[in-house]
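Hi everyone,

Forwarding the result from last night's run.
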Amino acid sequence: MNRLEAWLIGVVVATITLGTVYVVAQQLDRQAADQAGAQLASQVASELSTGSSATIDALPRVDLAASLAAFVVVYDGSGHPISGNGYLDGQLAAPPSGVISTAASDGSNHVTWQPRPGLRFATVEVRSGDRIVMGAQSLIPTEQRTDRLGLLVALAWLGTMFAIGLIALAFWWVARAQAAQGTRLSR
């Protein structure tokens, strides 16, 4: 194996390794974004199964366009919002009907919902009798962490490429010096 092949293998291995680190960390962070919504949805669904929800009454109103707070909305059997604390443009939040119908048929669902540019939410929907409970939170903090992670991984990749280049240069310089010394000694 010549030096160029060794250098290329180092570049490929470093790129795959750092790319894998980025994808795994990003996916773990995105999955963690479902946690607050899942907790709210399961709590409210549990309360609704026994009658009514004290949790909904205790939560402050959340303006989805202005707040990063977690929120919950309950939908009737037709998929219309009937109670909750998550409001968008003065109305209870209403994701596409397919989100609610999937939760109604499958028992649960979780999606990323983007009602308009700049507003993205990690949502978890849970069936409770003939109602669906959606718990959600903004993805802005998650996406900001992902952006910082991407920058750090890119910097790590550049640093690694620089280090691999220096090592390749050092090996080339040593080989050149040894070849020159071998030429002088043989004369």
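The chain is about 55% helix and 25% strand.

Cheers,
N.
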